[in-house]
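Extended Data, record Transcriptional regulator, AsnC family
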Amino acid sequence: MEIDAIDRRILTVLQKDGRITNADLAQKVSLSPSACHRRVQRLEEEGIIREYVALLDTKKMQRPTTVFVEITLSGQADELLEAFERAVRTVPDVLECHLMAGSADYLLKVVAEDTEDFARIHRQRLAKLPGVAQMHSSFSLRRVAFTTALPL
């Protein structure tokens, strides 16, 4: 699917305000409401727009501590990687998990209430993931930049 300049404007606005009304969106991107609605529908059907979400404040939700965990597995067999990936998806405190090229096999972004809570998550959940040979945790002191919007 080809994304034109109007689609990019629609996507830019929706990335900042996913709850905007179609009428307001149409006005911002200089389209009629019906044409705007058709474009948004097409972007959704093509999977360009995957979903709409609410972004929660980690501090207000009592999860202000962010920890990045590098995990090295005991091997690289497909079965081990698949077992690890299945298991890590079940840990609710893990917001992101990335298969890496570099010094670690996986990088996890974990949220916790505080260091004690992270110690619990580490002991009860992360250390029990299949094939974990080594973990290295780095605590975020302060978030400097944050966005969920892709550059268009």
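Summary. The radius of gyration is 20 Å.
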